[in-house]
Amino acid sequence: MTLVINEVESALVNSDITQKMYINGEWVLSEGNKTREIINPANGKVIGTVTDGAEEDAKKAIEAARKAFYENGWMNSKARDRAELLLKISNKLEERKEEFAYLDTLNNGKTLRESLDDVEDAVNQLRYYAGLATKPHGQTYDVPDDIQAMVVREAIGVVGIIVPWNYPLVMANQKIAAALAAGCTVVVKPAQQTPLSVVRLFELIDEVGFPPGVANLVLGPGRTVGSELVSNPDVDKISFTGGTDTGIRLMKSAADTVKKISLELGGKSPNIVFADADFETAVDYALFAIFANQGQVCSAGSRLLLEESLYEKFVPELVKRAKMIKVGPGWVDGIEMGPLVSEDHMNTVLDYIEIGKNEGATLLCGGNRIIEGELGKGYFVEPTIFGDTTPNMRIVQEEIFGPVLAIQTFKTEEEAIELANGTAFGLAGAVFSTDGAKAQRVIRQLRAGITWINTYHPTFNEAPWGGYKQSGIGRDLGTYGFDEYLETKQININLKVEPSGFFEGNKNS
User: Would you give the DSSP letter of residue 506?
Assistant: First the structure.
């Protein structure tokens, strides 16, 4: 691992080569010849330079994707051929998993063990959708006429994929794998802050031999590249993961062309702990729910709902353990929490901490940027916990997307459910209790798309990922994620070929 780390870092830091975007099977610089420096959030150092595109680059990629689909035969490609290409990518990615993991850790800041998990997920996503591509799709059904009636599923067409910075590789990969398996062509826009592992993924796509234009990568800002993808009438669908405010703007823009759209947006997810929960397990998962990936997780358990009688025992232990979390560069052995992704985002999180103080919440631990020693060069924020919160506080209602936990209390099941559902979001939620019936009762009342009982955060490529309310529309992953890239067509075949006889006057003409 050390050798791989040194090789990757040396290749990034010492290279004066601008990394390119991938359009129509070729590596190209942006039309405007602009570039962007990529920063390591653990120390503020430049770790690479990428070409920075705009609308004209997106238009070229869309044109290539449309031509590949409608003119050059990808819409008629065989499922087995698509599956074989995805399997080739998965094997190459598995061979280079340490390299990809370290790229994400350098670029995003997450710990290396989390990045390794992400790469393993990406490998399995490619294999899962390769398998799904060749499975039966559609229906036949009996009708009262002499008609053979059937339903077939067909690729939507050109898909614009816009992904966030918190899971750079795995979130891009899960959409790419599903869309290509379904027979679509794609134009992918990674987050500006974290493009490095996606650029490397496209190197694998190039190596395995996809036809030109089937898979395209455009680097650049959301206001130009992203807007062009959403507004361009030649894009048939948008798949977006990111913030709710951005998702709302994309949805409005997509309406102008009645474009199909799936949105995986923000969350303010409740983690409900009853007094009868296994204490050690509940404390452990309360920490993991919010501080994994520095709290930069859409499904993070950012609201801890504690049964009131448990508060005096639970909170001191929670705070004690939060203070013991080892914070530092994600590639260092033993580090449990890395930096936030950028200086701007760090300042946003710190602003929310000040908002919480001003709203009257009690700061139980953390609340500061870490400035001691080498950590002062990076964007590190202490694990932060607030008590004495009320439902109307902004730190309770708004997604902070950082290592900030708000504790609420309840007395009854009914109150727990009311508090849990008391935000505009509905992405995820959990219940901790040794009473199985109670846990089921409560979890079924949560208005959320991803839920857990006596655990938090396990995700599976086979299961749908998405939320209720303002947490989004549609689903990623599983068969549901595959369906997002397919149209449904009915075909009716007349088995008794003769005139209908509907217009009687035509018989003698």
Answer: G
Q: Are 277 and 416 in contact (CB under 8 A)?
A: no
pLDDT above 90 (res 48): yes
User: What does the pLDDT look like over 228-276, one tens digit per residue?
Assistant: 999 999 999 999 999 999 999 999 999 999 999 999 999 999 999 999 9
Mean pLDDT, the chain, rounded, equals 96
What does the pLDDT read at residue 505? 72
Structure tokens at 258: 């009645």
Burial 388-426 (b: 16+ CB within 10 A, else e): ebeeebebbebbbbbbbbbbbbbeebeebbebbbbbebb
Bridge pairing between strands 158-162 and 185-189: parallel
SS (H, E, C) 24-69: CCEEECCCCCEEEEEECCCCCCEEEEEEECCHHHHHHHHHHHHHHH
Catalytic residue among 55, 98, 114, 264: 264
Residue 120 annotated as catalytic: no
Residue 184 is among the residues annotated as catalytic for this protein: no
Task: Give CA torsion, residues 339, 343, 344, 349, to 10 deg.
Answer: 40
Residue 376, pLDDT above cutoff 90: yes
From 55, 298, 382, 399, active-site residue: 298
Q: Is the dihedral of CA 464, 465, 469, 470 positive or negative?
A: negative
Contacts of 505 (CB under 8 A, 6+ apart): none
Integer-rounded Cα Rg, in Å, for the chain is 25
**Cα–chain center distance at 409:** 30
pTM over 0.85? The answer is: yes
Three-class DSSP category at 446: coil
